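In practice, a research group might receive sequence data for several interacting partners and want a quick structural hypothesis before committing to experiments. The following worked case mirrors that situation: the sequences arrive first, and a predicted assembly follows.
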Amino acid sequence: MTNPIADVLKSETVLVTGTNTTENHPIFANYLKEAVLKHGTKILVIDPRRIDLVDYAELYLQPKPGTDIAWINGLMHIILKEGWADQQYIDERCEGFAEFAANLEKFTPEYVSGITGLTEAELRAAAKLYGQAAPASILYAMGITQHTSGTDNVKSLGNLAMLCGNMGVAGGGVNPLRGQNNVQGACDMGGLPNVYTGYQKVDVDEVREKFAKAWGLKADDLDAAPGLKLTEMFPAAADGKIKAMYIMGENPLVSDPDLTHIEHCVEALDFFVVQDIFLTETAQMADVVLPGVSFAEKDGTFVNSERLVQRVRKALTIPGEARADSEIIAEIATRMGYEMKYKDAAAIMKEINDVTPSYGGITYERLENGGLAWPCPDVEHPGTPILHVDKFARGKGLFFAIDHQPPAELCDKEYPFVLSTGRVLSHFHTGTMTRKGEGLNKVHPEVKAEINPEDAARLGVVEGDLLKITSRRGAIEVKAMLSDRPASGVVFVPFHFHEVAVNRLTNAALDPVAKIPEYKVCAIKVEKA
Amino acid sequence: MVTLTIDGKEVTVPQGTTILEAARSVDIRIPTLCYHDRLNPIGSCRMCVVEIEGYTHPMAACTTPVDDGIEVVTSSERLTRIRQDSLKLILVNHPLDCPVCDKGGECLLQDLTFEFGIDQLEYQAAKVERDSQYASPLIRYWPDRCIMCLRCVTACQEIKGIGAISIAGDGYGAQVVTVDADKCQSCGECLQVCPTGALTEDLSRYKGRTWLIERVPTTCTYCGCGCQLELNVQNDRIIAVTTKDGVGINKGSLCVKGRFGYEFVNSDERLTKPLIKRDGKFEEASWDEALDLVAEKFSAIKGEYGPGAIGGLTSARCTNEENYLFQKFMRAAIGTNNVDHCARL
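A structural hypothesis for the assembly, expressed as tokens:
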């Protein structure tokens, strides 16, 4: 997020898109409700699902899935024509505007209406609500990114924020809500194939030299080319290019797209190691399983969506012979001839401070007084709650001219419905944690597919009937839940339930840059089972 | 701005401030029971009554706004008597089952009863039998302990905007009831604000006395909100998750996962020994055996096919420190940038 969540209390308008905030970020949703009820903030929801937050919205638009660039360009077309753009901000702080503006010409309300299914009046009202507000914030999540056009969707939201002068100001910003406790931190720490910690690029010589020195290596010892992304690694295993994999605390055999293909890829591996706290669907396929520890049994730090680094503290002794994950990693490294030894988590953070400019001042001592938002270069620095104040991190804010692209898989006669996947309030990701106890299972015992009542009536389906859902890649049977959340023609199924794994159906088509799968759109057939 | 005196002390506050807020701004404590910082004043308990010069009747400090020049007295014999009477009326209906109540030791009613020295009651009331269904299967409602302060009903409405619970009946028969069980998300906002043991966590079978519980502050393990919570630990088990008002981004709120999603930690299904698969079946192994096998295999594959033939997935659920070590391991020990995690999933 460019801004902290509490900033929405200062926003005149908040555009909420591709985030079902009340279920997936319930505490952030509290702030949105407070903004509306106590601060007069107006919420604009634009989402193919009629999410619960619509009850708090000034305006709700329900575009067809996979048409985000079209409606965002459409809003910007109107904002520009109406003179609601912040021209001074654009001139002083941004670049690439002329080409960007020229590209918007064709995105007339009429043209956009044809692609998105929204009316021209709806588009005008939404453009006014965002365009005339100062400041206005944008919140988004996987509903924007999990498309083959995911990167361009995000850039389009960046364009919209810059067009109205909303970047680098309190109450503004472009704010992705991160879906997991430490997905921000895993990225910050270089858990990505192209960067070391703090997004320092692996293909820059000086960076590699710095890390080689810090790690007691020669610069040549470090790989100079970016590696494979997760969604590329499994296919590479099937091709015989990847022979071994080491997975810590992830469950791709439930979470990845087109599971049947992933299983085939994993079977092709010569050697497969999984480190986890449970014998997950992924661990069951491993050659060696190493028992790690849960968040309650270790010290460390997590980074929330706001880039706020916060402490995790050990509360329990480690069960049985399980071992701290950091110890396991260090032991394997040492046995391979590369010695790793750390006294405790604070000692690892010390090394992170030394090699990561944006984490330079984030010490355990300071974190005792509460979280710190990076960049925080030294121990005197108070942290940076808002990014791009006064100037953009790259200098000038760059506008991109982006055209609409349809999803990879479109509906046809045989597969006339769109499938979207996501989460429900009471469960988390692949259910490895939330489905282990009685409590959350009492609240949400089983998977259900949300289907619009009109579609259900046409199929002769009533609440609780078993549906057979088929895509080009597989089929599942799942109980129907009649709901006006999805529009007619769209079905939503959560992915937490391994026994009804919706990822048997999903399409592994990827965004060309981020390599994120298109979980929000694939073509399906729906029948009464 | 408005200037008034409270217990002889001059106080200047913005118009619209309540007498309670004005008193707190200069560290004058007025006892409260139904009042909660995160909620609009409820004004149901009469504990915060104060005297205002020139007014015959004492006023509730939580709902009365300041006025220019008024002189407020927050403690007197008369006020103490009124507060004692209010407490006695509550206690008529409140069982003294503190020894078996989860809230015993950190109950606001218990504290006030102690402070005001209530050791006997002059009144009695007929016992009313009440059914105690509650909106959520994870929270238990004890109608006899309920003091009708309305904090829970107000929090569900004001903080969560849900309104799943309300009050039904009147007099001694009044109780909190479920208006719409489908709306209840089991977030436990009601549990968080309950000043007594009328609402208790009904998930863990392992209960402990409040003074024996160790509360370890930490960060939630679920979504990216990063809520600050406290693991309530007794005998090396988590028996509940709580949070402190005003702390962290969540400021006293949690969701159903954060508050009730802790059972996995104590699960019998936890892995406690390394496993090695032999002939398609897992067998328990020693750490030396497992770690040597992993190190040998990785070294052999690296030797034969090069470091690029090994891929690693680190984890969005693990800590920064573990993620740092994992990518360092892949890059420095294996020698490849084939490291990623499920940020995209």
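Before designing any experiment, note the following. The first strand of chain A starts at residue 13 and ends at 17. The mean pLDDT of chain A is 96.
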